[in-house]
Amino acid sequence: MKLTKYYKVADNTFSVTAEADLYAEMDKYNIFAANVGDTVFDLELVNEAFDVQYVTEIKQDEEDQQIICGHLDNGDSVFEFGLYGRREGVLVSTPDYSGAKLYLDGDDTQYAIDNAMMVIYALATAKMSTLLFHAAVVEYCGKAYMFLGKSGTGKSTHARLWLRNFPEATLLNDDNPVVRIVDGKSIQVFGSPWSGKTPCYKNEVYPLGAIVALSQAKCNKINVLSGIMAYAAVRPAISGKRWDSKIADALHTSENFLAQHAKTYHLDCLPDNAAAILCNQTVVSN
Predict the structure, then answer these.
(1) Which of these, 73, 137, 250, 269, has the minimum number of CB atoms within 10 Å of its CB?
(2) Per-domain residue ranges for the chain?
(3) Does the domain at residues 131-285 carry the CATH identifier 3.40.50.1000?
């Protein structure tokens, strides 16, 4: 029997319809459960193979994960998710990303569900000043501090150094927090059901304290970023289908707001306590 459940992440409600047994793969979503309401998208999960031909637009590989983006002749978007070279699921979405179906035809159901959820969430909410980040974020004294950087830069390591050196700090999310610009004024950082390899799923929200872009270096040094430099630091960390002009325009508007209003820094750092102390003393006090 199919059930429909509702969830709310960063104040955006969405629905998921699936056979009851599939919800066993979604326990971490329970703390984001919501009442019935207006939804930004509706997703259906089906245990079926996807065998329709589609036009490939772009392929992306990161470590052992792959995603192929494309479209059907009717304009629907297609996202194929792979792991270690095996296809785990295919997401088919309406052109406006308000409705989607995930075909689960692989072995790793949770991997397919999580990736499909992140993709459709990022695309459906982009027009609502909502951004899905690739970042680690800690809460410290009531504010959220985000650490950005390429994979392997040390985002999670730097977050753990804050936890080690500052007892007041807690981990909000280790890989995929959500940022929302509220009423064109405040910048809020939300926990999410997606957190990479570290299970940290918190339905909490804090005002943004600062954004810190990290680079590995032989010494610790921190600089303020503003204008185009702040924009350039933030943009690569934000998920989105940038070859879709409507998505690109919405992201650009939000990214511009962050570049103008968010305290943004670049930290050259070693993976040591001194880096965390320097960062904390700089970004919290300013």
Answers:
(1) 73
(2) 2-128, 131-285
(3) no
